[in-house]
Amino acid sequence: MKLVRTVLGDTRGRVVLSVVGAYVLWQLWLTVAAPAKVMGEFPANRERVNVLVTLPFAPERYHVQAFQKYGRMAGTTDNGIELRNVKKTDLTAVARPYWVTKVEPLKEGS
Amino acid sequence: MNVLLPIWSGYVRLTTRFPIVQTLVPFIPVIALWWIVSAAEVFPKVFFPGPVEVWKSFVSLTYKGILPDYLEDSLIRLAVGALCGIALGIPLGILIGVSKRAHTALWPVVLFFQAIGDIAWLPILLIWFGFGLTTMTFVIVYTVMFPVIFNTVLGVRSVPLDLFRAAQSLGASKFAILKEVTLPGALPNIITGLRNGLGFGWRALIATEIIVGTSGIGFLMFDARRAGSVVEIMLGMIILGTLWYIVDAWILAPIERATGQRWGTVQK
């Protein structure tokens, strides 16, 4: 308790705690906001789906690599990344980063 | 003189109220000089970008999610490595410090392995574990561990003998002596060891990320080298300095000070 009082009584301690608190809140917000970014109708009878991940900017190597753990990279568009064979249960994880605008079914032949 | 006095007193009042000003002021001439040299184009902009370009790079990399992700990776690696290093270093240091037999048996081995620099382990680690978290964690643990061991041994040895004798004469068990005398007495040194160890660990992490990393601030800088982006390299350097300053001055130093104030009195 004394340690908590000491930390709270110090300006730097309060700033550090605020930063940690803001980080936790930010992570919570990303988790809460992710499902809303998954849009469109995904086939109900399939466990794995093909998706188009839209970003607010042209994807770079980092973004392509970030999604490789979820599925097979099929290519990139102006502001999108085409991912194949993504587990439906992973869709919210794909949508979680703040730089993802939306995740939608990939139109075949696109 | 009369003109300078109110300015100085205003500055003193300001720094008393906002200590962060005192931290930032020394950087003003550094940034100003950087700005002037860059704006004068003493060197080509592509080799020596100015603060504005670096700031724009910071905003862009943050907007794209690259910088926060790499920063998080570096900090998590440092935290995991440091915790493992501390968990190994403190018990080993106490053992070597309290037991003559352990000192005789382990001290030469510790000195031998300390002499092998952390980076010198990389070739063999890459063969054993490949380019991954295990290699990086090993290097950080290795780097953090030795300052912690040496400072813990020093701390244990610097506890006055009278305190052990007093505890023994009061009938304290070996465990009680360890808990009530050895550890509190050694704690200021242990914390100093942690501070040094984390500092070394931070540098080792960046070096390791440069060589074996696929993410992290070190990787960001080295990857920028491949693209010839000096602006990102400079940004990486500034982030390293800023982050370490914050961690050291805002977290580690106050802990060290508080520990010294609380437990350092044991020696009096």
TrEMBL record, chain A:
Keywords associated with the record: Membrane, Transmembrane, Transmembrane helix
TM region(s), chain numbering: 15-36
Name of the protein described by the UniProt record: Uncharacterized protein
Annotated source species: Variibacter gotjawalensis
From TrEMBL, chain B:
Compartments (UniProt record): Cell membrane
Topology in membrane: Multi-pass membrane protein
Keywords from the named record: Cell membrane, Membrane, Transmembrane, Transmembrane helix, Transport
GO biological process terms on file: transmembrane transport
Transmembrane annotation, as ranges: 20-37, 75-98, 105-129, 135-156, 200-221, 233-253
GO CC field: plasma membrane
Keyword Transmembrane: yes
Domain ABC transmembrane type-1: 71-256
Similarity comment text for this entry: Belongs to the binding-protein-dependent transport system permease family.
Full protein name: Bicarbonate transport system permease protein CmpB
Gene: cmpB_2
